[in-house]
Design goal:
Structural class: alpha/beta
Number of domains: 2
Number of strands: 18
CATH class of the largest domain: Alpha Beta
Number of helices: 12
Order of helices and strands: EEEEEHHHHHEHEHEHEEEHEEHHEEEEEH
Distance between the termini: 36 Å
Radius of gyration: 20 Å
Largest sheet: 7 strands, mixed
Strand order of the largest sheet: 8-7-6-9-12-17-18
CATH architecture of the largest domain: 3-Layer(aba) Sandwich
Bound molecules: 5-S-methyl-1-O-phosphono-5-thio-D-ribulose
């Protein structure tokens, strides 16, 4: 997507040919700043401290982290260590494990001197695949937005609610949940987006609002608790969210608060769709609520907020009483019964084992 007329991806190889550049998302929406990664530790820090975030981008950054590691130490032990360091950064998005497995497999049987080149080639392939995948998700999701608009008699606007940031900043390009919205907007549909602010890190208010605004998509930021109310009043035609891990049976893990939106959508007859690439499906587990590890982050993300003050300074302020403990569960799981459909690069399917295996028949045995 473009920033001030210049096309960007969220991660790319620096012109020096080996280091890696990213957009430092902790600085958005107030500053657009790039960061350079030169070591395995830089890549691990970028993921853990959320300079990059979003399941597909976490995977892509881990892939380049492996490149930076292997460049310095191409031994089997070096590869294993890099795998463990990166794997330990964040527990919930399964794209991390997926990307690390793909990278390790690409190098395993090669002589040491060929491993770095193979790693860079594979990381680039992962990124290109993500862009094509997200674009295809956008095409399939566009049909759903068009259907909702036509079913309602082509009103002046079709309202989509989204949670967190599952736009191009969360992937290499296009996004998952926002890809259908960009495609709808570009096709001339009058799409308007309700953007959940998404406490505590405010990925909706800071990132989704920023990227939708840059692309000229009409949107309105709402508090996390407003979704139920606007659904009751007919102001949401469909919800589209992303996911960090979807089980092979269709349970969906996503940013904390997604489950409550799904419940509200269910109660109000609003279709609730989840957009995801193949790399987000965890075929090894069946029960999302019991089996997906939910990240618990620093309580300071709850007790403090950062923003731009009237004088232009970026400031962090405390919003809770000194001494009040805070808990910071970063994700929740929406059981498949509340999910209307999964939007994948291969089409839209039911959130069920049959639905997913219909689209991914190669997984039928596993
Ligand atoms: O904690 P984050 O910002 O990495 O969480 C991101 C999300 O929950 C996204 O909705 C999810 O990764 C889908 S991204 C296309």
């Amino acid at each position: 997507m473009k920033v001030d007329g210049k096309p960007y991806r969220t991660i790319w190889r620096h012109e020096d040919g080996w280091s890696v550049e990213i957009i430092d998302q902790t600085k958005l929406p107030h500053e657009f700043v790039l960061a350079q990664l030169t070591t395995l530790e830089d890549a691990a820090h970028a993921i853990k401290a959320m300079l990059v975030r979003g399941a597909p981008l976490v995977g892509a950054t881990a892939a380049y982290g492996m490149c930076l590691a292997v460049r310095e130490d191409p031994s089997d032990e070096g590869i294993d260590r890099a795998y463990q360091v990166l794997f330990a950064t964040r527990p919930t998005a399964v794209n991390l494990r997926w990307a690390l497995d793909v990278m390790r497999d690409a190098m395993r049987n090669l002589p040491r001197e060929k491993r770095a080149a193979a790693a860079y080639a594979k990381a680039a392939e992962i990124c290109d695949d993500d862009v094509a995948t997200c674009s295809a998700i956008g095409d399939h999701g566009l049909s759903l937005i068009r259907e909702a608009w036509e079913k309602k008699g082509r009103p002046e606007r079709v309202n989509v609610l989204t949670h967190c940031n599952a736009g191009w900043l969360a992937t290499v390009d296009w996004g998952t949940a926002l890809a259908p919205i960009y495609k709808a907007h570009d096709a001339g549909l009058p799409v308007h987006v309700w953007v959940d602010e998404t406490r505590p890190r405010n990925q909706g208010a800071s990132l989704s609002a920023w990227e939708l605004g840059r692309h000229g998509v009409p949107h309105t930021v709402i508090t996390d608790n407003a979704g139920g109310h606007i659904m009751q009043h007919g102001l949401v035609d469909l919800c589209i969210v992303g996911t960090d891990r979807t089980t092979g049976t269709g349970d969906v893990c996503n940013k904390i608060g997604t489950y409550l939106k799904a419940l509200a959508a269910h109660d109000n007859g609003v279709p609730f769709y989840v957009a995801l690439p193949h790399s987000t499906i965890d075929w090894t587990i069946d029960d999302g609520v019991k089996e997906i590890p939910i990240e618990q982050r620093d309580a300071a993300e709850v007790t403090e907020m950062t923003g731009r003050a009237a004088d232009g300074r970026i400031v962090t302020v405390r919003i809770t009483p000194e001494g009040s403990p805070a808990a910071n569960y970063a994700f929740d799981v929406t059981p498949r019964k509340y999910v209307t459909g999964l939007i994948t690069e291969r089409g839209v399917c039911a959130a069920s084992p049959e639905g997913l295996r219909g689209l991914y028949p190669e997984r039928s045995g596993g």
